[in-house]
Design goal:
single chain; 292 residues; alpha/beta; seven-stranded mixed sheet; globular
């Protein structure tokens, strides 16, 4: 078990950046947002650090899953408002319409080659909610809250949330929360499907690690990566025939792999499988656009 104490959490550090660090916990990497004095508020630096963290976890074949959580009492308080009314002035040097920073972070999480679980360890707001939407599983501490504050700040939803949120909670709920600037309790989030579980605050990280183990125990890393990409990318396909086309290509490719031979042999021999194919050798296979 690991905790969010500085001494414990900084053991086995894989990457340390100004706003976060990445810690190894067995075959799982834990990405800790680390601005507790600002309730882990989101900044341009945090955007860049999240991209770097997921670059590092994708590049390391010993990492099989990723858990994202926060240090301190909050998960992420949304955009850091220290600049006051100028907080949302476009970043200099990135053009007249720079990419939304929350969207950059969300898309990097979306593109992860490893399963992503978010352990929401306390309140979250704005981008602190929306950047979690590309994760595969979100679990919440019993004191978590989810504030969709954009219309109450004169803004619009960001971080690709207008694509993700309706797919997760349905269009009616997404519209209600986003247009009203709602703050949603953990119980409401569970009822709507935004989170899959609520656990005591002290247990939220360990529960996320247990879920990560479910994804990695006895499974082939390349198959898990391809399955994650298939589910997300094909969910937006305009016709099931597109999914059929992509699945057919991948079944031919994986059906001739060393992994499938090992999977079948281990089943017949009643022993644990030892899969050898590495995700890093199949990164290009996760973009299915050339197949359609």
């Amino acid at each position: 078990m690991i905790s969010d104490s500085t001494a414990a959490a900084k053991a086995d550090v894989l990457l340390e950046r100004p706003t976060l660090w990445v810690q190894r916990a067995g075959s799982t990497a834990v990405v800790w947002l680390n601005r507790p004095d600002r309730l882990n508020a989101f900044t341009y630096a945090m955007r860049d650090d999240i991209v770097a963290a997921f670059d590092a976890t994708d590049a390391d074949d010993s990492v099989r899953a990723v858990v994202l959580t926060g240090t301190g009492r909050a998960f992420c308080a949304g955009a850091d408002l220290q600049a006051g009314g100028d907080t949302f002035v476009p970043e200099e040097g990135r053009g007249d319409v720079p990419p939304d920073s929350g969207g950059v972070a969300s898309l990097r999480i979306f593109d992860s080659c490893k399963p992503v679980i978010v352990a929401v360890n306390g309140p979250s707001a704005g981008v602190g909610v929306t950047m979690t939407l590309p994760a595969d599983v979100r679990i919440a501490s019993d004191d978590a809250k989810f504030a969709f504050v954009f219309t109450r700040r004169g803004l619009v939803p960001e971080a690709c949330s207008t694509w993700f949120l309706p797919r997760i909670v349905g269009m009616a709920t997404a519209l209600r929360w986003a247009m009203s600037g709602a703050t949603v309790s953990a119980v409401q989030a569970l009822e709507a499907g935004l989170v899959s579980e609520i656990v005591p605050k002290a247990e939220v990280l360990q529960r996320a690690l247990t879920i990560a183990d479910e994804f990695t125990d006895g499974t082939a890393p390349v198959s898990v990566a391809l399955t994650r990409a298939l589910m997300w990318q094909m969910s937006a396909a305009d016709d099931p025939r597109r999914a059929h086309q992509v699945e057919s290509v991948l079944l031919v490719e994986r059906g001739q792999s060393d992994d499938v031979r090992e999977g079948v042999a281990s089943f017949l021999e009643k022993r644990p499988a030892v899969f050898g194919d590495a995700v890093s050798d199949h990164m290009r296979d996760l973009d299915f656009r050339p197949l359609t």
